[in-house]
Amino acid sequence: xxxxxxxxxxxxxxxxxxxxxxxxxxxxxxxxxxxxxxxxxxxxxxxxxxxxxxxxxxxxxxxxxxxxxxxxxxxxxxxxxxxxxxxxxxxxxxxxxxxxxxxxxxxxxxxxxxxxxxxxxxxxxxxxxxxxxxxxxxxxxxxxxxxxxxxxxxxxxxxxxxxxxxxxxxxxxxxxxxxxxxxxxxxxxxxxxxxxxxxxxxxxxxxxxxxxxxxxxxxxxxxxxxxxxxxxxxxxxxxxxxxxxxxxxxxxxxxxxxxxxxxxxxxxxxxxxxxxxxxxxxxxxxxxxxxxxxxxxxxxxxxxxxxxxxxxxxxxxxxxxxxxxxxxxxxxxxxxxxxxxxxxxxxxxxxxxxxxxxxxxxxxxxxxxxxxxxxxxxxxxxxxxxxxxxxxxxxxxxxxxxxxxxxxxxxxxxxxxxxxxxxxxxxxxxxxxxxxxxxxxxxxxxx
Length: 447
Ligand code: ADP
What we know:
single chain
């Protein structure tokens, strides 16, 4: 097992990884930007190294500085966390070339799944159902138009390098197509340096359901059930739950096994998530994330498996500590993402937290690195924490979530806590009767 792990990330996820290491008696090195010197993850780590200025390109994306920090501190492995370099195949390759273990899949798998058009072809060949669309990249507007007219509108134009909902545009009609195509491609070029796009049928009322998988280097691959992430705004997840209220046990087992079989045939290692859209009883592959996900705690709650611990174990070459048969699902879990943002306009709201009282008590887990007096920097993602709720039933979870939201105090900055309370009051949410458009088109549209 590793003696020292360098954590190339920040905020709540850096702290989450530190906690897993700490329980495994592994020392941690936290690299950080000048803006994060006061971060709780930096304070709790065994060692810390400042690697650059506040802008991500100068610090959390600064590969030479991260590798140098690993060499100086004598780390054996690097955990990339979520975002930043976590799905950067070149980084994974360099980490290994410099003699450290990358806590994640092989660079080849990151590359293969990082190009969404290649990913779609790969999993289709392995038997996963995919959304109807172009056969890979579409080079010209004319070619795209042909595909779209054949399938029928509306269609979605998506960047092969896409992430975070960027480089994705709907064309409702043939008239809109040219403009949407150009917008998607330009946005992708600006955001990812790659303007390549592909086309998919736009599903009108799907749910977002994703399957958590984990595989070791000994040919074992298992699934840990699904998460329903249909409560979204701007293609960004807001609330997630496990299990999905839309699936039967038989459907859960079938899609889970299909996902595990897929990664087993790929020879994949590490944790990963296969995302699907689900409509009218059918699953359609969306993408595979070759890293830990923000919403991983709800899977931990319903399976009682520490995913980060297992991720570190398999990266060190150990066998999975459980078989598929040993994975037992119990109870229900929700996660509310707490963002430092205006609950009405959604504008980021960085600044100093003047008062902080997190909810607690039975069935509540808080994954966050904030504290009273902490200043949320303006440079990064607005996620500042997650309230994770455990309950024996979905209904019980909802009552507990309501109680947790009432208890939670975060003053000095604006947060989306009122948005969560608003969603929770909705009958459709309580009934589990929603799709990926419900939050924006129904709940928020009401005013
Ligand atoms: P990203 O990597 O940018 O997050 P995804 O492919 O994972 O992009 O899609 C993000 C979200 O966009 C999905 O959760 C869903 O809400 C929406 N979406 C993607 N593809 C489709 C589609 N074909 N039809 C309808 N909605 C879609």
